[in-house]
Amino acid sequence: MSETPQQPEQPENDQAANAPASSEQPKRPELPKSLTFRITPVSLLAVLAILVCATPLAWAAYPWGLLVYLIPLGLAWWILRTRTTVSQDQVKVRTALGGGRFGWDEVTSLRLDEKRWLKAVLTSGKEITMPAVRVRDLPRLSVMSGGRLPNPESQE
Fold this sequence. Notes:
156 residues; alpha+beta; PH-domain like; three-stranded antiparallel β-sheet; 7 strands; 22% strand
């Protein structure tokens, strides 16, 4: 005949059972050391398409036509190199030809760029483009800045 399933044995923990529910602190998720905002690597497929389309032109004007290949190579370099890395202390900006870093204490505000990337306005008045950081990334920037930047989602 059939046996009734038995309940697994529960360890007796008087402290957990007797502790009030209000004393339990909700655990806040641990923040990552840094966040990196990059141009999506899928855009390299467009570079590959340009490379394929440039091949007939490059070989038709051989040997000088091979310089056409510099265009897709430059685009690939720009896509792979351009990024913004945000930590709790500072922001590192890296572009194809250079980069820089600044601390969160230096940021007075953020401004939307013509390319829809954000620009950090520093206390010195200088504006630094933060590549690949968009308006949709503001909540994550707010968390990583430790509250130095207001979270637009919490404002009504």
